[in-house]
Amino acid sequence: MTPDSDIPPRPRPGQLTFTAPRRARPPRHLADLTMAQRREALRELGLPAFRAAQLSVHYFDRLVTDPAQMTDLPATQRAELVQALLPTLLTPVRTLTADAGATVKTVWRLHDGALVESVVMRYPDRVTICVSSQAGCGMNCPFCATGQAGLTRNLSAAEIVEQVVAAARSLRDGGLAGGREELPLARRVSNVVFMGMGEALANYAASVAAVRRLVDAPPEGLGLSARGLTMSTVGLVTAMDTFAAEGLPVTLALSLHAPDDELRNELVPLNTRWPVAEVLDAAHRYFTATRRRVSIEYALIRDVNDQAWRADLLARELTRRGHGWVHVNPIPLNPTPGSRWTASRPGVQQQFVERLVAAGIPTTVRDTRGREIDGACGQLAASSSS
């Protein structure tokens, strides 16, 4: 967990909020705990400790939380065991589909009424879920719907994990059919991206615990490949360095959005604490420590950051730190209602990409899904709370 001294001060009054308001803690869940901690929790309740492994099999392997389906447990203990370690964490509020059913966005209500989103995207070769790590966000990026909502609170590790488990359960049960018969889609969650609501590295302990639950083999965890996980950040340098030392081969995605400090100070207010050079240096250190190529996320905003000279500057900043360590994902901005920020023109986007490619930077325009279902992060949750 990052120490308090790693939390940056506000660059300007009211600009950033790094500390979540105090709220009642979410119920304790086995996904918050290691196996040893699960056993101890049951002992403290006077329940058999060895049942922790059985409950873990039901949750992570069989994706079951209904006591009636846990026939290997004593009927007289099932409800008590589930109440102790498998409380309900997320309640669906609203679900919208797009892309012939291959994209599903869900708003979840947490135990205290806070709202978060997750998005499941099915492809022929993979299923990706975008999860939230916070309710709201304190980074205050002006083009982001979540950033404009402010920070409500951090999610627990289990609340993050449950978004993935819920998607896996829905896939198993046929709730995410999608696609066309001539284009069959993958049936199991393979990729998890921490790119939903919130700055995951500002909720460091819970986010890393969630990663460990996702990659631990059943019954400890869900058994996903760490190489299928992506941790996104706007550039909390100290936390990036700490995460690099965790020994987890997770991809780091840096939301850069501008290669120069003057503009990035406006687009990503945290830049006034850690400017572009320091953030890119930290990203390169992450690559050096993990040998995992870093993704540079760059939302292309019309007439703001999409100039050809900025593509050239971005290429210079990346190549002067070496080659083969980075991949750029330009993202056509998914605009929010009433915002002055909108996506770049197609020709401008193409020129931006071509300048990067010409400089030898691997570049792929991000597939944008769910535009017709309040696709921008935080947009659906905001409309659901109004």
Task: Describe the structure in your own words.
This protein is of the alpha/beta class. The protein has two domains: 30-85, DNA polymerase, domain 1; 89-385, Aldolase class I (TIM Barrel). It is 32% helix and 16% strand. The protein has twelve helices and eleven strands. The strands form two sheets. Strands 1-2-3-4-7-8-9-10-11 form a nine-stranded mixed β-sheet, with helices on both faces. Helix 1 crosses helix 2 (51-61), helix 7 (237-244) runs parallel beside helix 9 and helix 10 (308-319) runs parallel beside helix 11. The model is unreliable at 1-15 (pLDDT under 50).
Strand and helix map with partners:
Blueprint: H1 35-44, H2 51-61, H3 78-85, E1 91-98, E2 103-109, E3 115-122, E4 127-130, E5 134-136, H4 145-149, E6 151-154, H5 157-172, E7 191-194, H6 204-215, E8 229-233, H7 237-244, E9 251-255, H8 261-267, H9 276-290, E10 294-300, H10 308-319, E11 326-332, H11 346-358, H12 379-385
Parallel strand pairs: 4-7, 7-8, 8-9, 9-10, 10-11
Antiparallel strand pairs: 1-2, 2-3, 3-4, 5-6
Helix pairs in contact: 1-2, 5-6, 7-9, 10-11
